[in-house]
Automatic annotation (TrEMBL):
<feature type="domain" description="Ribose-5-phosphate isomerase C-terminal">
    <location>
        <begin position="164"/>
        <end position="210"/>
    </location>
</feature>
<dbReference type="InterPro" id="IPR036569">
    <property type="entry name" value="RpiB_LacA_LacB_sf"/>
</dbReference>
<dbReference type="InterPro" id="IPR003500">
    <property type="entry name" value="RpiB_LacA_LacB"/>
</dbReference>
<dbReference type="GO" id="GO:0005975">
    <property type="term" value="P:carbohydrate metabolic process"/>
</dbReference>
<protein>
    <submittedName>
        <fullName>RpiB/LacA/LacB family sugar-phosphate isomerase</fullName>
    </submittedName>
</protein>
<dbReference type="Pfam" id="PF12408">
    <property type="entry name" value="DUF3666"/>
</dbReference>
<dbReference type="InterPro" id="IPR022133">
    <property type="entry name" value="Ribose_5_isomerase_C"/>
</dbReference>
<dbReference type="GO" id="GO:0016861">
    <property type="term" value="F:intramolecular oxidoreductase activity, interconverting aldoses and ketoses"/>
</dbReference>
<keyword id="KW-0413">Isomerase</keyword>
<dbReference type="Pfam" id="PF02502">
    <property type="entry name" value="LacAB_rpiB"/>
</dbReference>
<comment type="similarity">
    <text>Belongs to the LacAB/RpiB family.</text>
</comment>
Length: 213
């Protein structure tokens, strides 16, 4: 699985820490971490949590990433921004039990973490335990076990609801403010990472057009 890491501007200074903990946990599981930044608070390309959502949607819908780890100060804004888009099911994760139950009950493809609120002594341990519970085993297996069938049924229903309540991503990208979208895809390594992994030609063409605008 290819896991994308995205940090917005208020918490960009923590990118290196989050990346190191994430890699420590998931690389032995056989997963790959791709860091889309921001890499530091001084990065030329500044991402807002809204742009985190745009970038997450592009990566997930195009197949350039299978999972997104993102966040902001409280995690709430990044979660809301991600869930504003089709093909993204993002949970707000504070502790390891959140991570485990989101993976098993909701079977999402993105999480938003609070990188300021409660991020104090032992924060790196909390991140480690969250990532362990999030990515261990197969997701969508239900919790508690006697709730497996209705939980899996509800997840499928939600996926179908989102297909109806959201239009396709290319239409959305072309309708949004061009500078907003271009800012989300102008990171230092975005083109290098994205075009090498993108599996959707229509989204790739749209992104290329936006970058050249």
């Amino acid at each position: 699985m290819k896991i994308a890491l995205i940090n917005e501007n208020s918490q960009a200074a923590k990118n290196e820490l989050v990346e190191s903990v994430l890699k420590k946990v998931v690389e032995p599981m056989g997963h790959e971490v791709v860091n889309y930044g921001m890499y530091s608070a001084e990065d030329e390309n500044q991402l807002t949590y809204v742009q985190n959502g745009i970038l997450a949607a592009i990566l997930l819908n195009s197949g350039a990433a299978d999972y997104v780890v993102t966040g902001c100060g409280t995690g709430e804004g990044a979660m809301l921004a991600c869930n504003a888009f089709p093909g993204v099911l993002c949970g707000h994760i504070v502790d390891p039990s959140d991570a485990y139950m989101f993976a098993q009950i909701n079977d999402g493809n993105a999480i938003a973490l609070p990188f300021a609120k409660g991020f104090g002594w032992g924060a790196e341990l909390n991140l480690q335990y969250i990532f362990e519970k999030l990515f261990e085993g197969e997701s969508g297996q239900g919790y508690p076990k006697e709730r497996v069938i209705p939980e899996q049924r509800n997840k499928k229903i939600l996926d179908e609801v989102k297909k109806i309540t959201h239009t396709d991503l290319v239409t959305i990208l072309k309708s949004l403010d061009k500078d907003l979208v271009k800012g989300a895809i102008s990171g230092k390594h975005f083109q290098e990472y994205f075009f090498a992994s993108c599996k959707n030609e229509e989204i790739a063409a749209c992104v290329k057009e936006l970058l050249e605008a």
